[in-house]
Amino acid sequence: MSPSVLVLGLGNPLRGDDGIGPRVIEALNRRGLPEGTTALDAGTGGLDLLQILGGWERAVIVDASDIGREPGQFVRFTPDEARFVGSEDMTSLHNAGLAEVLALADAVGQPLPELVIFGVQPGKIDWGEGLSPTVEAALPSLAYAVLEEINKLVTRDT
Amino acid sequence: MTKTTNLNVNVHHLTRVEGHGNIVVDVQNGEIKKCQFEVVEAPRFFEAFVRGRPYTEINHITSRICGICSVGHSTTSVEATEKALGVELTEQAMLLRKLNFHGEMIDSHVLHTYYLVAPDFLGIDSVIPLLEMNPDVLMRALRIKKLSGDLCAMIGGRHTHPCALVVGGFTRTPTERELRDMQDRLVAAREDMDATVALFSTLPWPEFSRETEYVSLRKADEYAFVGGEVVTSDGFTYPIADYKKVTNEWCVPFSTAKWTKHNRESYMVGALARFNNNYEQLHPKAKEAAKKLGLEPVCYNSFLNSAAQVVEMVHCVEDGIEIIDALLSKGVTPEDPAPVNRTSGEGAGSCDVPRGILFHHYVYEDGICREANCIIPTNQNWANVNADLKAFLPQILDKPEDEIRHLLEMLVRAYDPCISCSTHTLRVELV
Questions:
Q1: Contact A100 B128 (CB under 8 A)
Q2: Hey, where are the domains in chain A?
Q3: Residue in A closest to B132 by C-alpha
Q4: Considering the entire predicted model, what is its pTM?
Q5: What is the pLDDT averaged over residues B127-141?
Q6: Which of A35, B157, B207, B239 gets the most CB atoms within 10 Å of its CB?
Q7: N- to C-terminal Cα distance for chain A?
């Protein structure tokens, strides 16, 4: 029986609060996940995300995002509840993110898993390891919210 | 169209190459005053900071010279250490090492051809616009990249920076099931390879021809990537230990990377050099691909280095399938890495990595590295890049300025330069 829920943490741990995604994955793996769930640090996967998402029924994505809130605050949403604003500088593959992945999937007709996204407002994304204090403080409640979401998805009928 | 009499080109930090470099051209009254590629990347200091580290660490450090060619650096590094400390690989370990190498070859070449070169021919600045223009082409590139990345991860333990690759072999052996599944995927990839050959055979490669010396490895019984002898198209052969007779490095004022030369003022390394020197040993399917691409030995058009990379992708898929057959027919058994026979010694290793022939040379004392020398393919190409630019410019001076700039950029890109790899620490003696 193939695993049903994939949890992806996106972000670069060397750029301050951009590392929130990988930190959540670390926290979830330490705590232990329900059977059939895989938590993956997908780093700065870019367009490769499309390949990583292939074959999963449901996926939860955690990523630092500019959601117009205070640092550390997060919002849970699905793709149809939000409008993604693509990156201004789209000449570099390194800037390709979730918005581009969804656009590409649509363009080639690749089916995607049912997606739930947790966008976390960053404080600082300069070069440097470690989260800023406000975002660090928000990590436990964020990890808890993601875990609650996973449990809901795992126990829900298809 | 009249010939340009005055032209100033200053491409600051050329795009779609790895690393940082500038194209500088100055033409006054029809005379070319300056035409050069300046490497401005900061020196990396790897040869200095491996000194004092134990032999078990060296390849894990030097793999960080590059994220695209980390398997290439790591493999060359362990080859040098194995020479120095007397290590014999098993046949299985050697096959796995070659298969891992093929994975990276495909990964690097698909990145260069699709992401860095193709945009120039499709009239776009990067591969992202393909999202709208032709998403199927973008998906194909992603698929090939994923396959090659997974192949590297299966053997090396990770897509990039192969942590399972160590002196004497691997810390983990793939299972027969994993190898069979990977073989199935390689077979399925033939369709993507055919489509790649078809795409690149339609591209209008610029006309250019400049005879130069081509340097690569050669082996008796296979198209050489890992180990062998050093050969040049001017007819010279050297054991790897004598690599300095080929490279003859020296410093150039406008470049933080050194230059090299052998029988002529410059030489070329990379896919085209390998193709020119070792064509006969390519897999028949790769030779077919070459024919479709209009590529035959000996080719003096540096732009076709990218076409040679497509040929090598086909070769690596086919040879990968055969290597897995060989592994499965003998049966794969988990093996510990082979031990060292001594802890002091000196050795040089060489592999022909995606961008060309690479040398690593170490001296060990009681298991600790005392000296290191790395000669990178891209820095061996700089003299040839500059000679090509100087030869090509007069041929295109009658075109509009934008087109001249674009063609010069494409020429540098064709080499698939890995600029960060090629910059070096300079030994400075204060007098």
A1: yes
A2: 5-123+138-155
A3: A107
A4: 0.89
A5: 86
A6: B157
A7: 14
